[in-house]
Amino acid sequence: MKNLFNSAHFMEDLTLASSEEKKQRALDLFRFQAEHNVLYRDYLQQLSVSADKVERISSIPFLPISFFKTHPLATGSFEPEICFESSGTTGSVNSRHGIKDLRHYLNNAVANFYQFYGDPADYCFLALLPSYLERGNSSLVAMADHFIQLGDHEEAGFFLHDLSALRDRLYHLEKRGQKTILLGVTYALLDFAEQFPMQLKNTIVMETGGMKGRKKEITRESLHAVLTGGLGVETIHAEYGMTELQSQAYSYEKGCFKPSDTMIVLLRSTDDPFEVWESNECPMRTGVINIIDLANKDTMAFIATDDLGRFHEDGHFEILGRVDHADIRGCSLLVV
Fold it and tell me: Considering its fold, how many domains does the chain have in total?
């Protein structure tokens, strides 16, 4: 089989690719990873699946995300430039994702962001990510730091626990009319909104999930009501990503996410992990999220997550919580 995936051409022009073209690229990548990813090849053999007989993306076997906790998932052989690691509770085993080329991850993050918001350099990023900063090798911190560096705004930066400094920075940026994104882990945004209520006019408030026992879990509707009321914004935006992915999805409001151009989202049955539906097959039906991440060409692109979700009729997807057996993760919200 000709190696198409050592070339940048595989990632080119995805913004112009039709839905069917993206599906064909996913099938091409599946067959490549079925041959060159040792663990995935063994997994398919255990399932008695022949890659050349898989003709639809919904027939692709998705690898359980828990394998990122126990095995290196490389397609081919390479020494990772960086290894991203997930957060976790005390005593838990964290996921690890060895990234072959950090520049590839960062460039894709920029392309994903640009699809929804335009040039990240136009925004001043204020990153309220204390739990991510307190540990090393966070993919979210790497992305936020890259966006901060691209913008070259003196006021941009990370905030750990000094919420009063964040308030002062926001006041200054609002007075100047500077487009700003306040990117924050959920519990820290709640702390900030409760301690320093504001009326933000030029700032997008974007939550990344993350309660992790810091506060009592609340529904997304209640969370967004507190944040909109406390920060004076009409809607709360959200970012959906994880250590195991190199692509992100974004939500403008109500937790309804649109996949980026390098991401295809499917649902699987809660009763049968091999019963998988595409978005046009199951509007408003609840299932567990499967993700094809075309940017994960060097690791594992076909991931069965533990996030419960549903599709809307417009193809957007919503995260409803976690399946019961899953570890607590940052995006955990109560099912409503």
Answer: 2
Question: What is the C-alpha separation between 165 and 227, in angstroms, rounded?
Answer: 19
- Judge whether 322 and 308 are in contact, CB under 8 Å: yes
Per-chain mean pLDDT for the chain: 89
- For 150-175, the pLDDT digits (tens) are 998 999 999 988 999 999 999 999 99
Confidence of residue 133 (pLDDT cuts 50, 70, 90): confident
pTM for the full model? 0.91
Last residue of a domain, one of 233, 255, 277: 255
Print the domain residue range for 36.
9-96+263-311
pLDDT band at 305 (very low <50, low <70, confident <90, very high): very high
Instruction: Evaluate whether residue 336 is within a structural domain.
Output: no
